[in-house]
Amino acid sequence: MEPSIGNKIVYNLRQKYTHRAIEGDQRFVESVIHILRKYQAQWEATDRFLDEIVQMIYRNYRIREVSIGLLCLKDDAYRYVSFCGFRKEAEAALRKLSYRKEDFEVGKSISNLTWVFLSEEKSYIKGEESTFNRPLLLAKLERESIDSCLEGDYFDTQIYDRKNRMIGWIEYSGTQDYQFPDIHVIKEIELISLIISIALERS
């Protein structure tokens, strides 16, 4: 039986993640150093700190949309807190949502930290259509290649604390030219998730 396009995409991403060497990215390193130095005296996961993180990912990697969500200890629910690249209507809709841990496991894992959610597999819960930046494009499900990233495709890189509890996530779409992010981008975002984890534990 011919593998589905979703299985081909996930296999391709996993192969690249496992085997592709990471090339140095000076711009990424400089951006991380800038943020760490800026918050060195009081290194906590403030709203401003998280806003700068999403803006850095958006600018450096030409990602269409980036957001960060955190665990709320009061009700054990996950909610979005920081955004970049979204329409106001989409951001407002996202702020109303809340999730449980199992909601993050409907996609397919690329690594221990990162999951991909594909538009063809409708890996979003009912009512989330209004949260997409371009909801009319959700009906356009024809991919030109396994590297093509559609509206409705997105990645979650999860954030864990030292007890291996998920305390948040970084969510991001494809690039501005509708391609999947390069694997070195995903690995660098995983590094950013660790930085956020340390900052959260110091907050």
What does this 3D model show about the protein?
With 203 residues, this protein is α+β, with helices and mostly antiparallel strands. The protein has a single domain, classed as GAF domain (Beta-Lactamase, 2-Layer Sandwich), CATH 3.30.450. The chain is built from five helices and six strands. Strands 2-1-6-5-4-3 form a six-stranded antiparallel β-sheet. A hairpin with a 5-residue loop joins strand 5 (154-160) and strand 6 (166-172). The radius of gyration is 16 Å and the shape is globular. The mean pLDDT is 83.
Key features?
single chain; 203 residues; alpha+beta; Beta-Lactamase; six-stranded antiparallel beta sheet; 5 helices; 35% helix
Layout of SSEs?
Layout: H1 5-19, H2 26-38, H3 47-61, E1 66-72, E2 77-84, H4 88-95, E3 108-109, E4 114-117, E5 154-160, E6 166-172, H5 183-202
Antiparallel strand pairs: 1-2, 1-6, 3-4, 4-5, 5-6
Helix pairs in contact: 2-3, 3-5
What's the arrangement of strands in the largest beta sheet?
Answer: 2-1-6-5-4-3
Strand portion: 15-25%
Number of helices: 5
User: What spatial form do the alpha-carbon principal axes imply?
Assistant: globular
What name does the CATH topology carry? Beta-Lactamase
Helix fraction by DSSP (H/I, runs of at least 4) = 25-40%
Radius of gyration: 16 Å
CATH superfamily: GAF domain
Which sheet architecture does the biggest sheet show?
6 strands, antiparallel
Structural class: alpha+beta
Summarize the helix and strand pattern as letters: HHHEEHEEEEH
In whole angstroms, how far apart are the ends?
Answer: 51 Å
The mean pLDDT is 83
Strand tally, please? 6
**Unreliable stretches:** none
Assign the CATH architecture: 2-Layer Sandwich
CATH class: Alpha Beta
Number of domains: 1
